[in-house]
Structures are given as C-alpha cells and as structure tokens.
Known about the structure:
Blueprint: E1 2-5, E2 8-11, E3 16-22, E4 31-37, E5 44-49, E6 56-58, E7 66-71, E8 76-81, E9 90-99, E10 102-106, E11 110-115
Parallel strand pairs: 2-11
Antiparallel strand pairs: 1-3, 3-8, 4-5, 4-9, 5-6, 7-8, 9-10, 9-11
Amino acid sequence: QLVESGGGSVQSGGSLRLSCAASGFSFGDYAIAWLRRAPGKERERVPCISTSDGSTTYADSVKGRFTISRDGAKNTVYLQMSSLKSEDTAVYYCAAGLSCRLLDYWGQGTLVTVSS
C-alpha cells in the first residue's frame, strides 16, 4: 500500500514536499516514480528512480525544480517541489513497480494547487 501526503495550496514560486509511505513491501526493491495528472491533460511521469542502476530521470517540465528522494529506514519516498508554477497544479501520485515503465502499485493521490 502507498499513501501520499503533503499536498495543498501554495502560491507561485513557493515550495512543497510530498511524502509517500509504503507498507507491505520495501521501496528498495522497486522502481519508484511520482506522476501527476492535471485537469484536461494526460498523466505525466515526473521523476522515476530506476531499479537497474538507481538512476533518476526527470520530466523536462520539472528539471531543476523537483527532486525525488527516499528514506530507506522510513520506507518513504519524497518529492521536493520548488519554484512552483501554476502549471504544476495537479493530482500527484506515487507509484512503484519492476521498472519505470511497469508501475504496479499506486497511491490514492494528493492534490497540489499552485495559484498565481
């Protein structure tokens, strides 16, 4: 089970940190991703940590502003978001799976609203 938290409303230019706590499995064994779905747009994978080499990939839209990290001891993944823009408004989901393309476990989502 994955449970996200930390969403909310923030003004443009502000920061938020999302958390995703896992239970029933260890994040260390899986690829981990944050995805978002904005109103009227397709789902977008924001960052993903690969299982093969531990590398992290970011969508161009968030490079330099968002950072994914994980705390193995807490079995929790974070998404630090800075310099937020109105276009970052979306429901954010964390997901885990065998690879960044095969994400089988999903959280319920947390809403982030950025106002200009």
